[in-house]
UniProtKB/TrEMBL annotation:
Bias kind Polar residues: ranges: 49-64
SUPFAM superfamilies in UniProt: Nucleic acid-binding proteins
PROSITE patterns cross-referenced by the UniProt entry: TRAM (PS50926)
Record region (Disordered): 48-83
Pfam families: TRAM
Name of the molecule in the record: TRAM domain-containing protein
TRAM domain span: 69-128
């Protein structure tokens, strides 16, 4: 997947209703790192996730690094968003976490079984090929 140079930050958040408007809270650390400024206007893109991230317990982070959003043995429905240099499918899940899926085609929706989870990437096998409208 090609990431445009204009992308300033990427994070997961819930959309909350506030009267007749809807609100997405920007994490404080996005402001603190200097990528964003309070009071400025930004273009926002929303991507649906397969499931909402579960709240993490206080002990689930170490040294500020978040745990991977997938677990070995877990089955996920994903869309193949890109093809890597080795020809493997690439899917993104919560927080932009990468899942590598061999034998998958660009744009294909598949159910995958996660086999190997690392800090910044997981490897999975296609368990089922899904119709695009599912």
């Amino acid at each position: 997947m090609e990431i445009p140079p204009q992308l300033q930050c990427l994070f997961s958040a819930e959309v909350e209703e506030s009267g007749e408007s809807f609100v997405v809270d920007v994490p404080e650390n996005e402001i603190q790192t200097g990528d964003l400024e309070a009071g400025k206007t930004y273009r926002v893109a929303l991507f649906a996730t397969e499931s909402s991230p579960q709240p993490r317990s206080a002990g689930s982070q170490s040294d500020g690094v978040q745990e991977p959003p997938v677990e070995e043995g877990e089955t996920r429905r994903v869309e193949i968003e890109d093809i890597g240099e080795q020809g493997d499918g690439i899917a993104l899940v919560e927080r932009g976490y990468v899942v590598i899926v061999p034998d998958a085609e660009l744009g294909e929706r598949v159910a995958v079984e996660i086999h190997n989870v690392q800090v910044n990437v997981a490897f999975a096998e296609v368990a089922e090929r899904l119709p695009l409208d599912e």
